Amino acid sequence: MAAKPEKESWNRYDVTNSPFLDVKTPFTSVEALKLVLMSPLILVRALLMILALLVLAIMSFIAGLGWPLEEPMPAWRRNLVTAGANCAGFIMLMLGFRMRVRGRENVAKAKELGALGVFNHTAWVDAVALMYLFAPSGVSKESNARLPLVGTCIRSFQNIYVSRASIENAKRQNGGPSIAEKIARRAKDRRFPMLVMAPEGTCGDGRCMLRFRTGAFVPGVPVLPICFRYNKRKINPAWTIINEGWHFLRMMSQIGNAVEVTVLPPYIPSEEERASPAVYAKNVQGLFCRALGIPAVDQSQEEFSALVKLGVKVSWDGRKVIAPPGIIDDKGFVNLSAALKKRD
Asked: A GO CC term (predicted)?
């Protein structure tokens, strides 16, 4: 009998305080006025962003043309990639973002140590900012490489592409290195750009730190914590369960967006952390929480996917959480037992 309340508590999910359902920045009459006034400028900025993406795609294509991307690039190719990354800075400007960066001096030390970059994942804007600031490699879904235009833009950044099958079975299926081995090998090879990963595995609302997966910590190499803090007063740039097009339009209608990027000193794991990726991940998660002044929650991609499967989302005006009849009870809870995947 003692286990029953725990199981019921496990399945009862509080949608009011979910990091994937943001109702703290609603669409108000003031926001509507800004949208009307900014509409002509939004179109111009959107066209300029597309042009910047085209330029970045061309430079990326040339940089990688005829070169095996699993091999380190010669200097002229890498310099072309770095130059192309400035297009990402222009895109940030067109999105209306002012960036404040602290701790750049920690990057050089991290490269000397062969560290992995790890960052708190809040929005798709994170990737654009990282591209501009560091021109790094990433660990990305295989499907991203096939995205129109975007796939070409990121090609020369020499990402490690993974799928569910490659994560679980790569070594057994083809006798090649596991994803963790690829990550460790890449991190220690200074001929490649720095590799960055998002241990949370998905985006939250930025008001808490999601559960860290252990993938970035299995190799046992040092990590470089990169902290993103967005201005959320008018609209939260976080990529939660939203209508993406409407959210993008709202973000573009702001007079100014802001993001602060803080690069912390490299974190060198102890022997205990090298032996236990779970301990290493938890300790680095705590470091992010202290640096950003936010709590940690035991939620991740599983809860996000379960909510999407059940049809739980935020109303178009961002004022309330809605769902099909019978999904949310009168106390604002959802039973995730039928949709929540079993945790590892």
From this structure: membrane
- Has residue 310 been placed in a domain? no
The radius of gyration of the chain from alpha carbons, rounded to an integer in Å, stands at 21
Please say whether the beta carbons of 224 and 166 come within 8 A.
Answer: no
- pLDDT number for residue 9: 46
Model-level pTM greater than 0.85? yes
The answer to whether the beta carbons of residues 141 and 161 sit under 8 Å apart is: yes
Q: What is the pLDDT of residues 54-78, one digit of tens each?
A: 999 999 999 999 998 889 999 999 9
Task: Name the pairing type of β-strands 160-162 and 313-314.
Answer: unpaired
Is residue 260 a part of any domain in this protein?
yes
Closest by CA position to 185, among listed 114, 135, 276: 114
> Is residue 267 domain-resident?
yes
With 70 as the cut, is the pLDDT of residue 102 above it?
A: yes
Total structural domains in the chain?
1
CA distances from 289 to 30, 77, 308 (A): 33, 38, 27
